[in-house]
Structure formats: C-alpha cells, structure tokens
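Lab notebook, design round three. We kept the backbone fixed and only want residue identities now. Task for the bench partner: fill in a sequence for the structure below.
Input structure tokens:
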C-alpha cells in the first residue's frame, strides 16, 4: 500500500499596502504523485518583524493534527525548532491515548533543525474580550500572580477563528471593543488574519489551542512568551479538549514559550477578579450568536452562564448584557455537553458555599439534574453514547 505524505513548502514573504502575508503550500503525495494542494496563510501588520521565510514552526503546528487524523507523515521543507519537534512527540502520544480511533502517531522529517535560539522578552496574549483572556490580561498586567506574572508586550485578535473571514464588519466591531478595553491599561492590540479553519478538517474543539499558538507564533520576534487562557480549573479538567494544562505547553519552541494560564481559578472566580477592572468587566464579549459580534445577546447559554457568574459573586451584571429575567432565561438553556454541565455545577456549588439562597440557584440545580434525551436513550455505559454526545457538542458548540 502506497504511503501518503504531507509536504510543507514555505513561500517567500509577500506584502501589500499595509500588511505582510506569510504563506505555505501544503502538498499531499501518494508515493511520488501529488494528489492535493492547499495553501495556509497568515496576514498581519507591517509593524511586525516577521519570522524568516524558512521558519516553519507555525506551519507545522497548523498541520500536525490534520496529519495525525489522516495518519500521514510530514516532510518540512524548511526549519523547525528542536524543542518544538521534541514536544510534538509527546503531544501526539497524549491525543493517541485520548482518542486512539481518531488520531495516530506520525513521523516528521525536517530539512533543518534549529538549536540554541533565544526568545524575546515579554509576552503576547490572544484577546477578543472573553472571560478567560480578560482574566489573564488583567492579572498579568497588574502583576497579580507573583513570580509567574508576565510583562505583556501586546495582545492579538484573530480574524478567521470564531469570526469568519467574510464577516469583516463583525470583526471590526469586536476589534474596536477589545482595543477600547486594552487602552485602559496601555496595551496595544494587533489583528492577524488566517485561513486555517477553511483548510483544516480537524474538530475545532480539538485543534483550537494548536491553531492559536500557530497563529500567534508569527509575532515571536515581538514577544517570546505566549499566554493561553485556560478553559477549566485544575479540579475539573475536561478531556479530550484542545486547550489543557496537559498539552498547551507542548506547543513551545526555543523562541516561543507557551504558558497555560488561569487553571487555578474556576470561571466564577475569574469573573470575581475581573470585576476589579471596571472597563474589562463592562466590555466582556462572550457571545458569538449576535450578528454584530461586538456585543452579547444576553440569552444564549454562554451569556446566561456569565450573568450567573456575576450573581454568584453578588456583583452587578455589567451593562454589556441586555437586561432580562434570569430565572426565565435559565429555563431556556440546554446543557449540550458534560463539560458545560460541569461549569454550571461549579456556579451552583459556589453559590451554595457562599450562602446564596436565590430563586436562580434552585433553577440551576433543576437544570443540572435534568436528564438530556441522550441520557434517557443512551444511558452511561452504552457503546454509542460517547459518539452521539460528541456529535451533539460539535453541532451546538461548547464555548467559554
């Protein structure tokens, strides 16, 4: 049987009036015959000092999970950090253990391995205004995590992830809101655009952190540390999930060190910290349901959950969420996955532990105890339960 191979072929840096564009051909071969060709690209401001043309760290990170899914070896026609190559061996092993029926161990061949590279001082953090990123930016910018605190050189917002490439107005709105927040603490926000989601066939729930670091590593000559905001706290780690303290650090290279940040706090505890930053709290953007993307609908699961995070800490719900009856809104919520159910359980437990006896607390208890159709039809232990639940989660989205 002829073995399939993916070849990463970096192209020369391009530019237009205001931006640089880094491109890489992703060529698929069966034996000596090329059977497919895609192009991955990243576009960002000319104010950024880009990586060298042959530096393929970002391209390899973007391609690795698709190759694992297709059980296809990778040949890199350029250079890769030795540290990153080492880390990706362990990264593959983790996903092989988590989902052996989906991901496979593959070989990576590189034209040139880079050694003993140094990283630029300071950090970069992805920032679109969500709870996880707002918490991380606030606590690091205010040196609230002792020796672990990082100096944030800049933040970045990615066009092509939750906001699709054809949604330019929505992206501009989200970018403006995020920059308004960061202006309060004198941190610049640089946009970057990528077509990763258009060409990847991997479940976004699995690949989002890998794709994020691949994208932000284009800024490694401006900041040598990447802060990835956590989804789950240490006492409720959910797997398999794309971002985790188990895997995120394995995206590190010699020049770009990745920190998984915030798992010391539950989402409610993060919101409590964020309320110290009035501008950050007032400009939270957790909702992807609205057409404009710069605001929150107030009634989707993520919006209701964030409003409850505030109520649990007995803080006012910020004006970025439309005012409505929380008890009615809870009734409309459907918990689409075990991961989301766990987050609602954390809110409930926080409220109970702090002696809150409001109607919404009882509504949460009823919601988390309510069995889904899947639980009724496919009880725990059913061989098809996991497959169906993963499909439903994918269709509805988890969000944080």
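Proposed sequence:
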């Amino acid at each position: 049987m002829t073995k399939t191979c993916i070849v990463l072929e970096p192209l020369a840096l391009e530019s237009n009036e205001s931006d640089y564009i880094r491109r890489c051909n992703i060529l698929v071969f069966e034996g000596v015959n090329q059977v497919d060709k895609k192009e991955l690209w990243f576009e960002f401001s000319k104010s950024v000092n880009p990586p060298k043309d042959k530096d393929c760290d970002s391209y390899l990170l973007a391609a690795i999970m698709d190759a694992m899914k297709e059980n296809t070896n990778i040949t890199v026609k350029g250079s890769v950090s030795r540290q990153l190559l080492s880390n990706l061996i362990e990264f593959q092993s983790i996903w092989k253990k988590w989902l052996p029926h989906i991901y496979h161990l593959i070989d990576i061949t590189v034209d040139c391995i880079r050694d003993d590279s140094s990283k630029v001082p300071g950090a970069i953090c992805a920032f679109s205004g969500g709870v996880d990123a707002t918490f991380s930016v606030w606590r690091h910018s205010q040196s609230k995590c002792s020796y672990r605190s990082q100096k944030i050189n800049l933040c970045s917002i990615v066009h092509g992830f939750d906001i699709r490439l054809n949604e330019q107005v929505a992206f501009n709105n989200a970018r403006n809101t995020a920059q308004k927040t960061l202006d309060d603490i004198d941190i610049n926000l640089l946009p970057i655009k990528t077509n990763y989601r258009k060409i990847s066939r991997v479940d976004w729930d699995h690949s989002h952190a890998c794709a994020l670091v691949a994208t932000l590593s284009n800024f490694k000559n401006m900041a040598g540390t990447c802060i990835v905001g956590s989804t789950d706290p240490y006492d409720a780690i959910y797997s398999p999930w794309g971002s985790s303290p188990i895997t995120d650090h394995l995206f590190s290279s010699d020049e770009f060190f990745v920190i998984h940040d915030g798992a010391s706090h539950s989402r409610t505890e993060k919101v409590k910290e964020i309320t110290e930053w009035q501008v950050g709290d007032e400009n939270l953007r957790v909702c992807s349901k609205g057409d404009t993307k710069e605001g929150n609908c107030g009634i989707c699961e993520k919006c209701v959950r964030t409003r409850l995070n505030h109520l649990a800490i007995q803080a006012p719900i910020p004006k970025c969420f439309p005012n409505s009856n929380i008890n009615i809104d809870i009734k409309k919520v459907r918990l689409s996955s075990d991961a989301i159910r766990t987050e609602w359980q954390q809110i409930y437990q926080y409220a109970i532990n702090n002696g809150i006896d409001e109607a919404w607390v009882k509504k949460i208890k009823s919601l988390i105890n309510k069995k889904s159709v899947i639980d009724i039809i496919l009880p725990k232990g059913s061989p098809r339960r996991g497959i169906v639940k993963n499909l439903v989660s994918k269709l509805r989205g988890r969000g944080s």
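Keep this in mind before ordering anything: The chain has three domains: 4-114, 123-261, 290-396.
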